[in-house]
Amino acid sequence: MSLIKLDADSYLTDGHGARFIPVGANYWPASCGVEMWQAWPENEIFADLDLMVSLGFNTVRFFIRWPDFEPRPGEYDATMLSRLLRFLDACVARGLHPQPSLFVGWMSGGIFWPSWKGAHQNLFADPEIIERGAAWARVIATHLKPFAAHLCGIDLGNELDALPESSAAEPAQVREWCRRMTGAIRDVLPGALILSGCDHQQIITDTGWRLGDSDAGVPPASAEWQRDARATTAAQPGIDVLTMHGYPVPTWHPVPCGGLADPLTQSLLPFYVKCARAFGPVMLQEFGTILTSPAAAPHADAYLRAVLPACRDAGANGFLWWCFKDITARIHPYLKNNFESQLGLVDAEGRVKEGLRYFVEFAREQAGRSAELQPAHRAPEEERNANASSNAGAFGLKRRTTAGGEDAAAPTVHLYWPTHYYDRDAPQNPGNRPRETSRRLIIANHLLQTAGFHTGIVRGDRPIPTPAEGVRRIVVASSFPTLGEIESLRCWVEQGGHLLWHGPDPLNWAAETTRLTGAMIADYHAAVPTTVSPDHTVYHLGRYPRGLRLAVAPCGAQVSFVDADGLPMILERRLGKGRVTTVLADVEGSILACRNVPATGSAAPDGDWYLTLLTDNAPPSSSSPGQSSPCGASAG
Fold first, then answer.
1. Which of 141, 231, 370, 569 fits a disulfide with 188 by CB distance 3.0 to 4.6 angstroms?
2. How would DSSP label each residue in 138-191?
3. Which residue segment(s) compose the domain that 542 sits in?
4. Is 397 inside any structural domain?
5. Quick one: 372 and 511 in the same domain?
6. What pTM was computed for the model?
7. What angle do CA 483, 487, 489 make, to 5 degrees?
8. What gap in Å lies between CA 498 and CA 574, rounded to an integer?
9. Are 235 and 303 contained in the same domain?
10. pLDDT in tens, 257-312
């Protein structure tokens, strides 16, 4: 039997070449939690594996806690290693595919490194620890080798991007560490799939664990790969499958969302998956509802029914619940973070909790499809939005639906991911910061879906697919593209694309921006709130890029709408076969700042804003004509 591999569509295939969709759970035993290897309640563990099989699961992710196995540098505990082999044997005997996680320092809010690792020794930067880490990876890979055909990949570590050491190290050190550790694994298992184990912090901050290309130029790590792995091997060298973890806790996200029933909350995890999928294969390696009590059951059920199909449609190639069972052990870290003890899909008696049964249903459906010939991952223009909900949510939104539900023919709008997304050690970044950029992308994604659009991601570091190739509408959500990116966007527009550009950078507005937007800056103004009404609603705009409100003069564009003070706010530009709609305010930033503004008669932009500005027919001018061209440019 050969190894589990990736196919050309970024799904997994089993040793017979049939598509394989991992469904299952992350695992610690209830009686001892993170002390599994020390306590080793074998009967309990094996009974739990039997229960997983009975639920229709095919995969279990588990954690090889480093200090248990290497109590002293270079000395490996034979008892622990034998228990590892027992666990692997038990999984294989039951038809479960184990997914071992190697560098388990971060776990449930606790940090568990070997005692011999000094507090000052950064996992990613200290030469001694790096060497010990590479040796550890080779030792464990050696013990995994007899089970290689059954592994659902090897997980590099649990949420390495959540470690304080990750943010303390330089991004280049994190990247080099990733290269060293994946290389050490492949010294022993050259054909194994390796997963990153990272969570949504890859998108909302810069911990060094990044999505996308870099200047590293690392070649594909395995000659057996049947795909171009450049995207994942550059930023996370040697990683085959990106991972996503995410949970519906409002304070864990960069936007002011509500609870389980909020459509914005329900849109988050599918959006994170969609972002990662733009850079490579992605597995939904951890997810859950956090709230699992009977009181939360109706909300948890609604959340799962919205999120799981949406993550599947966003490109997730596997689904693992956190965590399989409630933890009854009264030990660290569960005493410190007691909520971590009640995240189980099943309770301590092994019963699936009331509000979580949909995942079991979903898992069985996916596992049943594993052997079928499935269509390739949809092109971005075909991605379905499955986040429907009648709940108004945190932003007071109403969702547009057809009488039959989703409109399969709804158009797709692509959100623009700038080339320079991350800001640490990034001298060429014109001003993007992942927290701020991700906030705006999240809001734009949600409101576009509310308006009835499908959404996709288009990358600024890659050639933009032409409108004929399926990318017809792009929204730049107040991020800062470079000169080269602006030129690429112009070429794309000229081929027939429609660009909606929110908040062009006022400090980098030069000739190419003028050429694209059809306007030039006439003056700067104080960043005071204003309103504009491109449809029948008066919208409040209170944020501007870099805190600068602009007065512009048309230079081939038409002023479609002015703000309450008479300054141009929305411009229309016909360019070649396409069209540019420019809004001078930071629209998504304005939404985040106010949501709605009571007692003023105005509201934050909502889905109707995007629907109005992205309609195929340009809105009529509501102000003085903007076709006068002080710089002599033509309209197209």
1. 141
2. HHHHHHHGGGGGG-S-EEEES-GGGSHHHHHS-HHHHHHHHHHHHHHHHHH-TT
3. 412-613
4. no
5. no
6. 0.90
7. 115
8. 9
9. yes
10. 999 999 999 999 999 999 999 999 999 999 999 999 999 999 999 999 999 999 99
